[in-house]
Amino acid sequence: MFFNTKKYAEEAEKNHKHDLKQEPTMFNMISLGLLATFAPTRIFLRMHKRHITDNVVVEESDVEQVPIIYFHGFRGGDYTTNVMVHQATKDKGNEKFLKVTVDLLGNFKLEGTWTGDKHPIVQIAFRQRIVGIYGIDYYLSFVLPFLSKRYHFKNYIAVAHSLACPCIIRTEMKHSSSKTFPHLTKCALIAGPFDGVTYLGDIPNVNVLNENGRPSMMNPHYLYLLFNRRKFNPNISVLNIYGNVLDNTNTDKFISVVSAKSIRYILAPKAHFYQEVEVRGKNDAEHSWMHDNPFVIDIINKFLNLKK
Q1: Using CA atoms in the order 105, 133, 189, 94, what is the torsion angle rounded to 10 degrees?
Q2: Which of 12, 195, 205, 252 has its CB 3.0 to 4.6 Å from that of 262, i.e. a possible disulfide?
Q3: pTM for the full predicted model
Q4: 185/237 Cα distance (integer angstroms)
Q5: Does residue 293 sit in helix, strand or coil?
């Protein structure tokens, strides 16, 4: 059995409306996504002159700011994080937030408000959203330093869904010694495929974790995290949330429990704080629903100290 991309697209985008007129063509998303995947071809993306559309209100601040930044994964969009973002602003008591729409050519559209409090809320939306792990890595490589320089912050908190989860960890490890790249202080990971995607290198109930949490089978992306684990800052706190729809596959329909839990073996011994939460249920634990699940959002916002 192979990974059903059509089914994934239907599940990922069900009950979510987005403006197709403003979305790039499928050819655009795939072609630019391929260029971003391979390091030698990224030069063609960098040749494009960057355009910035800035409609942001920037509030004055007298505190060292650590923004909370929301990231979606493969085939996601702003709708992936909308419910989380709006609940975070509500719990924080300030409904203003910054929305950043970015494409692989380096163009930015900035909207909303960069608030003056300790933790401004930032929502990231990738225009070319059909990108794999290397494509999201590339997005993060220029989006994070751009925002850091523009809004003067050195550290940030990440809330990531799906494929953005391993990319956040990879990016932190890759730039661990950089003084100009912003660094994680906390990260909330939702349904992260750290050691494969169901039927795409991870067949349900085949891979297992030993008593120490080490997976019996490791894909190249997992091995990268394992070999670079010493670069993970021990001051970072981690919340890992994953799902099990209880249909005998031990998955959230797309990510296995083993794949999602496997990151514990790498990060738990290093992190300042590590906690994992398993969400169960046919609907509550489904991959494309967890980011809207009130139970999940409540746990995340308590972890972020937005909700007491």
Answers
A1: 10
A2: 195
A3: 0.92
A4: 6
A5: coil
